[in-house]
Amino acid sequence: MRKESRQFFENLLHAPSLSGFEQPLQRVVRDWVSPFADQVTTDVNGNVIAALNSTGSPRVMLAGHCDQIGLMIQHITDEGYVQFSAVGGIDAGVMPGVRVFIHSRQGLVNGVIGRKPIHLQTAEERRGEKFEMHKLWVDIGASSKQDALKRVEIGDPISFELGPFPLQGNLLAGAGMDDKAGVFVVMEALRLLSRRKPKCAVFSVSTVQEELGLRGARTAAYAVDPQVGIAVDVTFATDYPGVDKAQIGDIRVGKGPVIARGPNINPVLHDLLVAAAEKKKLPWQTEAVSRATGTDANAIQISREGVAAGLVSIPNRYMHTAIELISLKDLENTAALLAETVASITPDTDFTPL
Fold first, then answer.
1. Is residue 40 included in any domain, yes or no?
2. Are residues 215 and 100 in the same domain?
3. Across the strands, what pairs with 195?
4. pTM of the model
5. What is the mean pLDDT of residues 320-337?
6. Cβ pair 11, 29 in contact under 8 A
């Protein structure tokens, strides 16, 4: 990956972006995309929309959601411990002992998620498999509620520890790969397209609040009014122990972007994506989704009178935990796939399934 692009991705991973609190990451997006986009706007919900050749035809929307799962301060005990609720879907079982950042008006506050030690649990508690969120807390080192309130307040967002770290084989791990990887891809694809002068109009959108019900994509798609829309998200890798491939399919980290098929996907657009991958000799994988996907593609497809929707995903291990894992090579290949596909779209391209 080129040095500047990798730095952009790492800047995204360092930026907090809980659903509803995406502003720090969106500032990173605007700064990076402005030099090569024709226009960059931010709507009232916080979506960042970067346009290229906005008078072209058809109108193509690329969407990656920038919000990440996390926590929010719900209550502070008299002893100064911070109790919280989840922002998005989180497995409470992987949370004890995790380092977190509280993003307060006073700045960054370090904390660690605590739980009663196994030595002090009853036999019944030890047998229980389900962790309950309300029985966990964040310890910030405060001596009392009054002491804690000097640094944090009710409603402050809490992220898992931010920032990536490399593993072997082009792999990168860290919080928020879902879906900062997608934001990177749609903006990197726009950069690649800026050198190719596409005939269609291209709108790369860093959408907000996907984890709370595809909210940003709904309003952004209405505003952009695309005829074609491709969502870029992460999907479940199945290349580690304990995953049933019969349920999800055979999807491997490092083996290329995953092109979805199913009722949420326009078949003409699907075939264009496959043709682009074959033309550029890019590795790719297939994912069968027999229902509406839980991604921005769902919201885009049914916007206004309907949109030719596609979904391309990056394989991701350990989704919705404090540490997720992706391949940098998959990111590169996904951006190249999107750029090649969009460059092939002309005013004469008919997406009507016949």
1. yes
2. no
3. none
4. 0.95
5. 97
6. no
